[in-house]
Amino acid sequence: MAENKKNLVITEEVKELIYDIQNKAYLTGQAREAEGKKTYEAASNMQASDDDENSYQVRRSLANAFSSLKSLLGEYLSEDKTTSNNRMQSEIDNSGQLTLTFRLPSNYNNASADSLGNGIHSYLVDMALADWFAITNKEDAETYASHSKVSLENVKRALYKRSRPTRPTY
C-alpha cells in the first residue's frame, strides 16, 4: 500500500521573533524595576536592543533554539541537509524566514496548523529569552525555560492531532 503523507509548512518570520524577544525582555526589565527587585541599571541591562553585541547574542540564542526544536521534532520533519557548521543561518542573520516542513500522516488534522505555528513561535521566543536571561538575569531564565517546556508540549499536542475516520459510503 502506498504511503499517504501530507506536507505542512510552518514559516516563522525572524523579525517577528526578534521583536517578541526584545519586547518581552524590555517588559520583564521594566517589571523587575517597578517591583523594586532590580536597580534602573540592572533592569536596563536585561533589555535586549538592536545594538550589535545584543543583537548577535539574541540571534545566536534563536539559532540554538531553532536547532534544538528541529532535533526534538525530527521524526516529522522533512529536510535534506547533509552538512552542518557553526555559522549562523543566513535566515536568522538577515531577518528572513525560518521554515519547517512537516511530513505528517494523511489523517493529520489541519485545524491544528495555526496552533502548531503559534506554539513554535512561543517555544523559540521562550528558549531565546531563557538563554538571554541566563546572562542578564538568572532568576527570570528559569521562568522562561519553564515556559518553553509548556510551549513544546503545546507544539507536540498540535502535531499529534488526528482527524476521526469517516465511514465509507457505497
UniProtKB/TrEMBL annotation:
Entry superkingdom: Bacteria
Record-given protein name: Uncharacterized protein
Native source organism of the sequence: Prevotella amnii CRIS 21A-A
Lineage: Bacteria, Pseudomonadati, Bacteroidota, Bacteroidia, Bacteroidales
